[in-house]
Structure formats: structure tokens, C-alpha cells
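dumping this here before i forget
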Amino acid sequence: QVHLVESGGGLVQAGGSLRLSCAASGRLFSLQSMAWYRQFPGKQRDLVAVITRAGTINYADSVKGRFTISRDNAKNTVYLQMNSLKPEDTAVYYCNVRLLPVLDYWGQGTQVTVSS
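structure:
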């Protein structure tokens, strides 16, 4: 079993920054990747950024150059630094941990609201 605890969401003005954190605990020996998704009202969850066990990173085109995903292996924690935030970034952000072969765990979600 894997437990994820997210923190760092909130309200920020356009152009501002926020940092999300997600601490993972439990049986992580088969960890494949850690990622951030976001969900707009009435929409499915979309990938924002992912970092694999090997350190490969990918971003959604909409956040490239503004968001940075990073990982602290010692703390089993993944971060999402979000800069130059836009109102269209407003969403609920979810942390995801994927174990081999394909087993997903999700955080509780944290609201990010960007005011114009």
C-alpha cells in the first residue's frame, strides 16, 4: 500500500508562483514514476509533469518553461514548482505514483486558484 500527502496549493495572483509537494510512504520498491496531474471542472485528469525512476522528465506543452518537477529520493517526495501562473492553470492538482507493472496511487488533490 502507498500513501500520498499533498501540500502547497492555494490562491495566487496571475504571474505568481506556488510550490506543490507530495510525500509518498509505503511499499515503494517497485516505483516507476512520480507525476502531477490536474483536473479542470467537468474534465478528465491531464498529465502536467512526470519524473521517472531513471530521472527522465516530461511536461505538458502548456506548462513547459513555467513549471518544474523535481524529486527528493531520500524523502520520497516530489515537487512541482509553478512560476508565471495563469488563470487557466486554475485546477485541482493531483499527485500520482506509479508502481510496476501498472499500479497507480493518487493524492487527495490540492486546489490551485490563479486570479487575474
